[in-house]
Specification:
Length: 207
Amino acid sequence: MASIEKRIMGRVRAKGRWRWVCSSVDFLDFGSRASVRRALARLAERGDLHRVEPGLYYLPYFSRILNRWGGLRMEKAIEALARRDGIRIMREGGDCANGLGLTNGVAAKFIYDTDGSTRVVKISRTPIYFRHADPKVMFWAGKRSAPVAQALRWLGQYSGRNPKVVRKLRRILPDHVKEELARYSDYLPDWGAEVARQLVEPLKEAA
């Protein structure tokens, strides 16, 4: 049987250079937590993996064009931290609204809602802000419609119900996301549930 280190490197390489940040919890099928941690530490000492922070690792790539190692993908490191700590996370509403083109603001900080504790964690000297959120908010974690639910909460009643916002969401959202949002609209504020219903009305009429 291959050593734990070889099996770890096999899995990491399969994910692709720079594309995945990992921790010991991602390899517990290879051995005990202690043995996996020791194997990861040895791989980092040899330079096979780069250590982001204690307990977080990734396989970097070297850019021949830039003649330097590629930088860390912060969102992947944050996902790895969430897996390691056993918490669920979602990007905060302002960032989601920006991603959907509902605002021109640019997120200056990495802010996440979580079912874990409120805290600030530094990854490569960059502060990551975790805010404990209500279970009704965290219900959306992992769902395809989560960014829309987060954006609507952030926009608030008056901006969220704006006809321009509704029209844009109708235009850009896939039908399955609109339907999911409407299906679980009880987990939105009353006005947000109304917006969700408006998004699926054209679908019902077409049917």
